[in-house]
Amino acid sequence: MSFAPAALVAAAQAKGDQTPADMARRMGVPYLAVYRWATGRNAPGPSGLAAIERTYGLTTADLMREDAAA
């Protein structure tokens, strides 16, 4: 399983957050961290996952996707 940023971006857009800067302000986390999550460059750590769940109601399971079989 790996982090799937599409769920985060969709939840943010549903609340009116159109940019990573909007998301960062709403979650109270650094812009650069949110930018990296939204682009899939990095996955959020425990504190980031907590901020996402608190702000957008997404659980860790909501943010993960099954990797394709090799």
Automatic annotation (TrEMBL):
Q: Which domain of life is it from?
A: Bacteria
Which InterPro entries does the record match to this protein? Cro/C1-type_HTH, Lambda_DNA-bd_dom_sf
Q: Which Gene3D superfamilies match?
A: lambda repressor-like DNA-binding domains (1.10.260.40)
Q: GO MF annotations for this entry?
A: DNA binding
Which segments constitute the HTH cro/C1-type domain?
Answer: 19-63
The protein, known as: HTH cro/C1-type domain-containing protein
